[in-house]
Every structure is written in C-alpha cells, then in structure tokens.
Amino acid sequence: MTNLLTEPRGLELDEYRRELTGYCYRMLGSSFDAEDAVQETMVRAWRSLGDFEGRSSLRSWLYRIATNVALDMLNARKRRALPMDLSDSSWQPVEASLGAQLPERSWVEPILDNRVLADHADPAEMAVARESIRLAFVAALQQLPPRQRAVLILRDVLRWKADEVAALLDASVASVNSALQRARATLAKDGLPADDSPDGLDDESAALLTRYVEAFEGYDIDAFVSLLHEDATQNMPPYQMWLQGSADIGRWMLGPGSGCRGSRLVPIEANGAPAFAHYRRDASGTGHAPFALQVLELSNGRVAGISSFLDTRLFRLLGLPTHLEGVAPER
Question: Which fold has domain 2-190?
Fold first, then answer.
C-alpha cells in the first residue's frame, strides 16, 4: 500500500479515510472491522482508479465501494450488541458476576472520536456526529438489516439526499424512503437511553471527571461510589457481566475488581463521550500496562454507566500508549 499513500491520486483517496472509517464503524460496530473495511475500500479504489470516469464524485464512488465491502462483511454474521443485551438476566452474587467470556465478535467495540470525527465541523453537525457514534446508538444500528442500516446512516447521519442514496445502492428513491421509514420505526420502538452529556465538557462535568480519576487512582471506593447514580451500570466485555446499582459496583470494586488498585487513567474521548485508557500496574511494579478502555455515560452531574472493554489490542489499533512508565501517585 506504499503507492496508495504517496502517489497524488492515492493521497486524494486517503483524504476520505477518516469519514469512511466513521461510516464503516457505524455499519459494523467494530473498530477492527472498520479499519479492515476501509483498507479494503482503498485497495479496491486504487486498483480501479483507471476505470473511474468521474460520472459521480470521488467521495460518492468511495462510499459505494465501502458500502459493498461492509455489506459483504455483514453477510452471515450475528449482530453485535451491548452486554445488557447478551447477559443472563438471572441475579447472581457480585463475587460471581463476571460470568462467561463471549466471542470477540459478540460485542460492539469502542472507537476514539479522533478516528472518525472531523477536526473542524459545524457545531450542529458535530453534535449529530457524536450522537451517532454513542455505544447505545451503534448497538441499536446493529439490529437493523444491513441495507436499512446503510440507508439510515447515509440519510440521517451523513445527510445524503434520497436520490444520492438510491444511486449508491442501485435502488429506487421510493425503496430508499421505505427502508428509511422502517429503520426509523425500529429504532423508535426499541428506544435509546437518554444522555444529557454536553457537546463539550462544561465545568461541572470536567470537575466530575477529575474527582472520578482521583477516586479511581486512589482507590477510594466510598468517594468513587458517591460519583455514581444509584442505578448506575457497569459492564466489562468480553465477560458476560452486567452490574446495576452503585452499591453493587462498589462491592465489585472491593472484590473481583480489587486488582485495579494502583491503576492510572489517561483521559481520551471515545464514542462521543468522556473516556479513559485504563492502565494497571505491570508485573514488574515499575510501570503500567494496558488493561481496558473505559467509556462513561454522564447524566445530571453523575456517572450513569461505565463500559470497560478489556481487549488490549485496541490500544495499539487506536494509537494509544502501550506502556506507561512510573507508578501511580499514592493518595
């Protein structure tokens, strides 16, 4: 792929990588699959540049290729979901709450905002873009049939016109409008959790996150629990785990989760929400190794949800440090 990144036309193609990654992530629910889909899109586009006649824009042409790649990848695959959708609903003690590990392809995976969101976008467009990569929204998208999913993303998220989507999918405008109505109805029926997180962190939210880091790194569980809503949730893919209630989360932190003492949290932004790269002390005790990506849900001045993704391959994929030197300060 060296030529793709150095030849003039290759550089022109690569300008669309970030937005194509966002599109493929919403389609596939996986940062790994999105990267693979975009890479395959670029390979196919590069090989076919000589046949591109300019009847449509280069952007539209790339989206057509990316859509075909994503639809091919979705064939015969089970939909990805959030832990709440896959966990055993029967009650079990906090000490035994991790449950079984499910296959990697079971979960909606996180994505860093800077991998998929434009640097300089209109504030209203940025708000829609952030909302459209929220974990709950991406999980809801996975419930839609693949072509409905593509139509809804192109029309409602990317603001394409109906005739543009019809041309991309080789379909009629009437069928595109029908698919959009069905997709909207499905999402409306299932509903999505409310999230009142501001588009940019206000002073109150920033202070909340500062206290969250202090409590977590100092392992002050009383202080940590005080920052959670009473009915806050915690989940930890790939484990089939779903805790609800600040008291249970506190007990879990002092029980199965006690290995997180001495951790460090590095602030990031993921899925349109505040998040942290979570590092635990390494075996030598002189530094910290990747452990999880935490994505938070904030509501009314407290933490309403914590999703901790334990697949440490995400650190390298998303360009995060793979080791931190030094120990966390004692608090």
Answer: Butyryl-CoA Dehydrogenase, subunit A; domain 3 (1.20.140)
